[in-house]
Amino acid sequence: MVYLPPAFRVDDLAQLHAHIAQCGLATLVTTGAAGPLASHVPMLLDAAAGGHGRLLGHLARANAQWQESDPSKPALAIFMGPDAYVSPSWYPSKAESGRVVPTWNYAVVHALGPVRFFDDAAELRALVDRLTDRHERGRSKPWQTTDAPERFIESQLKAIVGFEIVISGIEGKYKLSQNRTEPDRQGVIEGLASEATPTSQATRALMMAKSTLPQK
Predict the structure, then answer these.
(1) What domains does the chain contain, in order, with CATH numbers?
(2) What's the pLDDT score for residue 50?
(3) pLDDT of 53-78, one tens digit each?
(4) Who contacts 99 (Cβ-Cβ below 8 Å, separation ≥6)?
(5) Residue 5: left (phi > 0), alpha (psi -120 to 50), or beta?
């Protein structure tokens, strides 16, 4: 599914599921008669379903992806984590040989499986309630679907189509300078500390967390 050098590979299912759970938005890729189709949507993970879990989400009914997708071909869900540019000036080896180039560090999980689209009202309501709770939980005044008029919610449900992906394959790629020497890797961590963007700081945190390193 993805180019995956051994140094960057993550196989631990619990870690992959944790990555998915932390992502607010994912990319749903399917195949239609005219080629790839893609939508960017929030997804829920049922970690205990099947061997690898299942994903749930919904599309606008007006989005042709649900009608044009070929059900005989697997869908791909992409969960992108933090990412950051890596300057070659951060490598101590630059002063030694000069044989360094820019790169990009990032963390991503790909989940593959058959997709099922559905528009059953009860199934959609349960999905929307769960998605709402997932993102409203912990707020001082969490919004609930019951806060809106029931007829309004019913009309909104008619405007969406749900989907389910039972995960048949899952891969994680954490490209965090594991292919560099330890001094170069520490140089990247120090370099990212000077960057102001939240994604740079999140990438640095991943690099510093030993638990995120691929399994040997």
Answers:
(1) 6-87+99-180 (2.30.110.10)
(2) 84
(3) 999 999 999 999 999 999 999 999 99
(4) 93
(5) beta
